[in-house]
Every structure is written in structure tokens, then in C-alpha cells.
Amino acid sequence: MILDFLMPKNKDSERISGIDTAWLRMERPTNLMMITGVMIFAERLEYERLREVIENRFLKYRRFAQRAVQKTASAFWETDPYFDINRHVLRTALPGRADKAELQHLASNLMSTPLDFSKPMWQFHLVEDYQDGSAVILRIHHSYADGIALIHVLLALTDPAPDAEPTPESEAEHIEEAGIFRRFFDPVDKAVHTTLKLGRGLIGEGVDLIKHPVHALDYARSGVRLTAEIARLALMSNDSSTRFKGDLGVSKRVAWADPLPLHEVKTIGKALGGSVNDVLLAAVAGALRNYLVEQGDPVPAELQVRAVIPVNLRSREKAAHLGNFFGLVFLALPVGIANPLERVYEIRRRMNELKESFQPILALGLLGAAGMGPNQVQQSLLEILSKKASAVMTNVPGPCEPIYLGGARLAEMMFWVPQSGQIGMGVSILSYNNRVHFGLVTDQKRVADPEAIIGRFAGEFEKLLLITLMSPWEEKLDAQQIERSLKALAGPEG
To answer: Most buried among 3, 319, 368, 486, using CB within 10 Å?
Structure first.
């Protein structure tokens, strides 16, 4: 056992951080730990150009030529002596003049297929002929980097114009755990230190605190905000029982919506006294609610669907560094609220509460401690925490201007981070070129028709747009009055 903690003699090997090790260990047939992206190009992207870009820019990050080697109690990055780019940049054909449904089906199959752990765990799948252009489906294991870092890596593959000269990029070195918290969290350095200490204690005690929430009261009585946050997390109830949560299968289904104009989303947010996020999250909650109603499921007023939202904890200077450095917050979406304006106000209230929370730092500390502890204990902790949510939701800002890869203009893109435990739904919100792109992945055993949910996002957004257009901006809008007005416009049958 002790030998597992020793560095291998291979000089090209390096220890994988505890946080990244946790993502390696979370791999399960029911939830593969891959970040998946779909990029649609307006022009044809040639395979040779894509391969050239990958060789010259992507592989400048030496991590992507390395594979993960897991020992009993540790893991290492090791250069693959048999690395072959042909195993990682692949041509994929769709039948005939395939449309969106065929591409969604391909993405679903790839999201359900594990990466090969004996090789570097990433692949680019190029569909050279898709509609009038091309498409690329990207798969990268989460242990290599988090979503924020990968977005920056992928942007380094692109150019501002189809014939732009490539800009040399320096290799992004892996972030080591040593000193990372002091570097980024000077204002809450003590809190972070305490979190790690408590996190390691939880591991040593077999996650007794999480398993037996009554013990959390001892932490809460200390009067320290961080320990009170631990108590709050331990005492948090499991998420509501809906069709979105339960036993999972091994097949995923993916769908995405037509993009929304970003300026309209900003206008609505301003008019309602909230943010872009408030508007988008309210639209998600409304889409989930309407889907449940259509399925004939009970939707009481108090029903909520809790989502795990990753929070970036990197400094701007370290945005492109590989590895995982993010926290998590639990946001309860008010799915039971029928009034769309009330949903916006309630989400804004809950988001404001989370802004003052230590949840992201706590989650980072627990994940890092779990990755350094026994595998069985980590799984116990993560399974318990996963019961507290039904979805993982990401909201990532992308470039405001169009970008090009291999001379082809990128028209649409979506990215999904993996779920874990019993979480079987992932929502992707990404802004690019002044448009907002929605994507949804579900476990087929739970929701076999994600397109029925994703198709409702636009309708929920249009409700909020109508509310904004028909109401004065100089005063806070009254939700009940708006509801009466909407019913009047809908007529007797509405």
C-alpha cells in the first residue's frame, strides 16, 4: 500500500491531484465522467485541417498526450508511449443528408460510450458533411480539466477570421494542489484551510457527519459560517421525488434548442430587475414544470427540482490551466410556481442567498479530500450528495464575436459536464456570438424524450418577453396582475 504513494520511476509521470483523482474514481457505466461538446460549423471543415490544428495547438498541452494510471491509493499521469493521433481525431459519417435528429442520435451514442482508459482519454469526432457545413463532437474526460479550462483550451484552437495567422500559445501547466488556495483565496484563506481540514476529517470518520446529519448541529452551534455551511449541507433533504430522479440506465439522450438572442435576454433581465442568469434559470424551471404537467405528474406549488451548479474558482490568469478547480452550489428551481414572473423573482432571491454562501469552497474541499481518501468512502460521500439534486446545470460565457476553426465558421456550440450518482439530467447554457445556446442531456431510463423539454425553453422565454413588453419598466412588476393579463390575452380557453 505504501508503495502506491511513491512516484513511479518514469520521469514523464506525475502525481494526479486529489481533486482530479476524484473524477477518475467517479466513472460508472450509468454516468461516464466525460465533458461532451457539440460544435456545428457553417462551412465544411476538412479532416486534414482539423488534425493539423489538433497537432499544432491542442497537443501543445502535454497533458493530452498522457494517460491516467490508477494505483490502489493514488493515480499518476504518464506519457502514452504508443500515442497515435488517428485514435483521437476520427471521421464519422451520418446517413444520407442527415439532419439535427441524426446528429443528436450520434451525440447520444457517444455520450453513452466510455473512453479508453489505456490511452489519453479524449476524442474529436468529425462529421464532414452535416447540412451545409460540418459538425464536431468532442469528448474529454473530466479528470483532465473542468469546463472553464476546456473552454479556454478550445478557444486557443480557433481564430478570429478564416484566414488568420495562428497565434503561438504557451503550454498550460497543470495546477498543483500545493499553495493553490492561498494563491486564489486570500480573503477566505482561513475558511478554505478549515474546509480542507474538516473535509479530511469527514473522510477519516467515514463521512459520519453526512450520514448522520444530527451530528451537524455540533458544527452549527460553533457560530462559524463555514461550519454552519457544513451543517446546512448535511441537513439538506434529498431532492423531490420526480421522474427526473431514480435508478439510471447506461444510455443517454441529448437534444438542443435553436439559439435565443442574447440582447433580448439582457433586456428582460434589466426590466425585471434581475440578471441574465435569473431569466434563463426561470425558463429552465418553466420548461421542466410544463413537461411534468404534460406527463400527468403531480406538480404541487411547493415542488422544486434541485440543480447542482459548478462555480468557477479560478483567477483570470489561471483560466486556461488544466485540472479541476471549481466549487458547487445547490439551487432549488421553483418548478411548482406556475406564474413565470414569480419564478424569476424567487430564483433571484435564492441566487442572492447563494452569493454569500461558502458552499463552493466547501464542495471543493470535500471533493479534494475525497480524492485523497479510500475509494469506498469517496463513493459513499458522492452518492449521498448526489441524492440531494436531480440535475447538473452549467452556464458558460463564450466569445461575443464569431470564431473559426480550420477556416470554418463556428455557428453553434453546446457543452455538457458529466453527472454523478443518481443524477440523470444535465443542462447546458452557453452564450456565443450574441446568442444563447441551450442543450439538455437525460438518462434514457428517466426521460427518453429530452427534445420535449428543450422545445419548451423558447416558449418560457417568450412569456417573459411578452411580460416585459406589456409592462412599465419604472416600477417592479406585479406577478399577480401580470398573470391576470396573460389569462385575459389567452382568452376563455387559455
So the answer is: 368
Which neighbouring-strand residues pair with 89?
124
Tell me which range, 286-290, 352-356, 375-379, is most confidently predicted by mean pLDDT: 286-290
CB 180 within 8 A of CB 165: no
Residue type, 454: I
Residues 6+ away with beta carbon under 8 Å from 6:
none
In the prediction, which pLDDT does 91 show?
96
The grid coordinates of residue 198 equal 474538516
Query: How far apart are alpha carbons 66 and 78 in whole angstroms?
Result: 5
Q: Is 56 helix (H, G, I), strand (E, B) or coil?
A: helix
- Pair type for strands 89-91 and 122-130: parallel
Residue 107 is placed in which grid cell? 451525440
Maximum Cα interatomic distance, the chain, rounded to a whole number of Å: 77
Instruction: Express each pLDDT in 75-112 by its tens digit.
Output: 899 999 999 999 999 999 898 777 899 999 999 999 99
Kind plus residue range of the DSSP H or E element containing 378: helix 375-386
Q: Does residue 375 have a pLDDT over 80? A: no
- DSSP letter at 65 equals G
Q: What are phi and psi of 295, to 5 degrees?
A: -75, -5
Contact by Cβ (8 Å): 294, 307: no
At 437, give phi and psi (nearest 5°): -105, 125
Percent of the chain at pLDDT > 70 equals 70
**Model's pTM, two decimal places?**
0.82
Using the structure block, give the residue that is written with the C-alpha cell 490502489.
72
C-alpha cell at 216: 451537524
CA angle at 233 for the pair 228 and 235, rounded to the nearest 5°? 90
Class of domain 240-400+419-490: alpha beta
Distance, in Å, from the CA atom of 171 to the CA atom of 372, rounded to the nearest integer, reads: 27
CA distance 187 to 295: 48
Amino acid 346 reads E
Number of Cβ within a 10 Å radius of residue 454 = 24
Q: Where are the alpha helices (DSSP H) in 7-46?
A: 18-25
Cell (9 digits) for 327: 466549487
- The three-point CA angle 185-191-196 to 5° equals 95
Q: Burial of 355 by CB count in 10 Å (0-12 exposed, 13-18 middle, 19+ buried)? A: exposed
Listed by start position, the domains of the chain span 240-400+419-490
Q: How far apart are CA 116 and CA 94, in angstroms?
A: 23
Buried/exposed code over 1-25 (b: 16+ C-beta within 10 A; e: otherwise) = eeeeeeeeeeeeebbbbbbbbbbbb
- What is the phi/psi pair of residue 226, to 5°? -65, -45
C-alpha cell at 423: 443524477
Q: Which of 470, 407, 453, 423 is nearest to 328 (CA)?
A: 423
What is the rounded distance in angstroms from the CA atom of residue 423 to the CA atom of residue 443?
9
